[in-house]
């Protein structure tokens, strides 16, 4: 499987120290995944390794996150 996530809005490139303090509010990301056929199907085998067909997935994710709301739950 190959995949990537690309931040479209409110997803800056941050160091780990900056990320801990960052309150994104609304974040928008594009997610893409692809699975390539890497195996074959044998009806006599209980477990068939690999994929026999290719799959792809494209998602647009909206996420509302607030550091302040998370810290209140602790």
Structural descriptors:
74 residues; three-stranded antiparallel beta sheet; alpha+beta; 16% helix; elongated; single chain
Q: Tell me the quaternary state.
A: single chain
Number of helices: 2
Question: If strands are numbered along the chain, what order do they take across the biggest sheet?
Answer: 1-2-3
The overall number of domains is 1
- The CA-CA distance between the termini, in Å, is 36 Å
Uncertain stretches? none
Shape: elongated
Q: What would you note in describing this structure?
A:
- By secondary structure, the chain is α+β, with helices and mostly antiparallel strands.
- The chain has one domain.
- Helices cover 16% and strands 41% of the residues.
- It is built from 2 helices and 3 strands; from the N terminus they run βαββα.
- The protein has a 3-stranded antiparallel sheet.
- The two termini are 36 Å apart.
Task: Briefly say what this structure is.
It contains 2 helices and 3 strands.
Give the arrangement of secondary structure elements.
Elements lengths: L1 E8 L6 H6 L3 E11 L19 E11 L1 H6 L2
Antiparallel strand pairs: 1-2, 2-3
């Amino acid at each position: 499987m190959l995949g990537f996530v690309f931040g479209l809005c409110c997803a800056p490139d941050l160091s780990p120290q900056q990320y801990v303090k960052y309150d994104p509010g609304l974040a928008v990301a594009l997610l893409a995944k692809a699975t390539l056929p890497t195996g074959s199907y044998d009806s006599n085998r209980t477990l068939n390794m690999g994929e026999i067909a290719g799959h792809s997935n494209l998602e647009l994710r909206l996420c509302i996150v607030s550091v302040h709301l998370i810290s209140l739950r602790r």
